[in-house]
């Protein structure tokens, strides 16, 4: 693998792990960082490398050092079952947000779903 591809893969993994840790959707990270969802998605899909300013914006939004987003990833997560459950919950939250933005569910339904999701987060 080229250095650029390794860097992209590392960044994508670190962003994904940070999202799970903060219980954020990619849309929330895009809002917090000031990046577009498409631009953020290009990093997660390993299609692009962020500029220094974009990396700094991501780091600030995630409350980490920019270097931490490019730091090598420990290949074995400390809690693989917990990580899997968190990823499943995050995927469900993404689906809910997409449904809300598409007008498939009402604001009240979104609030109810978010409340239920918050309860599972605490467990």
Primary descriptors:
123 residues; 434 Repressor (Amino-terminal Domain); mainly alpha; globular; single chain; 7 helices
3D architecture notes:
The protein is mainly alpha-helical. It has two domains: 1-75, 434 Repressor (Amino-terminal Domain) (Orthogonal Bundle), CATH 1.10.260.40; 77-123. It is 72% helix and 0% strand. The chain has seven helices and no strands. α2 crosses α4 (52-62) and α6 (80-101) packs antiparallel against α7. It is globular and about 45 Å long. The mean pLDDT is 81.
What fraction strand? under 5%
| Top-tier CATH class of the largest domain | Mainly Alpha
Rg (CA only): 15 Å
CATH topology of the largest domain: 434 Repressor (Amino-terminal Domain)
Which structural class matches the secondary elements? mainly alpha
Question: Major sheet: size, sense and barrel closure?
Answer: none
Distance between the termini: 40 Å
Q: Uncertain runs with pLDDT below 50, 5 residues or more? A: none
In sequence order, what are the helices and strands, one letter per element? Answer: HHHHHHH
How many strands in all? 0
Question: What is the number of helical segments per DSSP (H or I, 4+ residues)?
Answer: 7
**Mean pLDDT score:** 81
Give the second-level CATH assignment, the architecture of the largest domain: Orthogonal Bundle
Provide the helix percentage. Answer: over 70%
User: What is the domain total for the residues?
Assistant: 2
CATH superfamily of the largest domain: lambda repressor-like DNA-binding domains
The general outline is globular
């Amino acid at each position: 693998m080229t250095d650029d591809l390794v860097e992209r893969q590392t960044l994508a993994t670190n962003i994904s792990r940070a999202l799970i840790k903060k219980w954020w959707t990619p849309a929330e990270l895009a809002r917090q960082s000031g990046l577009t969802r498409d631009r953020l998605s290009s990093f997660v899909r390993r299609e692009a490398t962020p500029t220094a300013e974009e990396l700094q914006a991501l780091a600030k939004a995630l409350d980490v050092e920019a270097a931490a987003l490019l730091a090598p990833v420990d290949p074995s997560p400390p809690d693989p079952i917990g990580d899997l459950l968190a990823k499943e919950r995050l995927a469900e939250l993404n689906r809910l947000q997409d449904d809300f933005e598409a007008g498939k569910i009402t604001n009240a339904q979104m609030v109810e779903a978010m409340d239920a999701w918050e309860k599972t987060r605490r467990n």
